[in-house]
User: Which sequence fits this backbone?
């Protein structure tokens, strides 16, 4: 006995193409055009319920000085961080955070896994690119005077992001667990231990004890994968919110070429009045 298939449910009205406005040309027929119209209708359906378009316009459409590419450095840093996060997630799928399997898992990812060499190269060199971009962004902020009132808090958050970026680079250096990364990390932790007051406690925290051991690699892996990226994500959110709220700073040498007449405040007019005396 043949099975009777139930009828296909109709497409919701919200996903149907929107009616054409009067006086406009009909949309081109075809699968691609219908797909585009359906996608627009789906986005409109979501935006009608979440009301995200206003916030996105408030965050993305901001006035900045024209013809200055340095204002893209902040967005470049965020793109580099997102690249590190995505490639790091895929690398973590094949990584073994143990003293006996860490190096072998890195070797397998680099030499045998599908696109493993590409992902590891993206993550390795992407960390260097991110550090360089962070320093360039901090230099641009300093020379443009964007650390002054009312953007002091945003400058402090940027300094914290710089420290977190360096911490992520330092903790990730040990993860291959070869001879170079092992001894370089020992030197770095010992240098941290020479700091005043908190130095010895910081070294013990990084080593997960008084000496390097099996838990040291797990400690660095947890800091590199969970603690530092979470803190960076939160700081980036606060940083972007302050940027959209306070705006960007124009360079000190970028001044308006002329002022409109009557823009000066507090300057008395020297034109004589009707009785021959000057206005007071």
Assistant:
């Amino acid at each position: 006995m043949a099975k009777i298939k139930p009828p296909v449910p109709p497409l919701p009205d919200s996903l149907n193409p929107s009616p054409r406005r009067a006086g406009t040309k009909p949309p081109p027929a075809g699968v691609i055009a219908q797909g585009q119209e359906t996608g627009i209708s789906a986005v409109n359906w979501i935006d009608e319920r979440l009301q995200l378009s206003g916030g996105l316009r408030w965050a993305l459409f901001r006035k900045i000085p024209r013809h200055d590419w340095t204002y893209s450095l902040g967005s470049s840093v965020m793109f580099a961080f997102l690249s590190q996060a995505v490639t790091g997630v895929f690398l973590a799928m094949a990584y073994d955070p143990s003293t006996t399997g860490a190096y072998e898992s890195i070797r397998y990812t680099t030499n045998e896994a599908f696109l493993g060499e590409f992902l590891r190269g993206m993550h390795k060199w992407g960390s260097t690119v991110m550090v360089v971009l962070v320093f360039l962004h901090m230099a641009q902020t300093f020379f443009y005077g964007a650390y002054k009132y009312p953007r002091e808090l945003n400058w402090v958050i940027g300094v914290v992001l710089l420290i977190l970026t360096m911490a992520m680079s330092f903790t990730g250096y040990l993860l291959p667990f070869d001879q170079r990364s092992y001894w370089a990390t020992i030197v770095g932790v010992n240098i941290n231990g020479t700091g005043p007051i908190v130095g010895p406690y910081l070294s013990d925290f990084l080593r997960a004890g008084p000496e390097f051991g099996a838990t040291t690699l797990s400690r660095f892996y947890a800091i590199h994968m969970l603690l530092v990226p979470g803190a960076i994500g939160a700081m980036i959110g606060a940083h972007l919110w302050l940027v959209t709220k306070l705006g960007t700073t124009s360079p000190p040498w970028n001044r308006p070429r002329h002022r409109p007449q009557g823009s000066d405040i507090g300057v008395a007019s020297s034109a004589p009045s009707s009785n021959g005396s000057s206005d007071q």
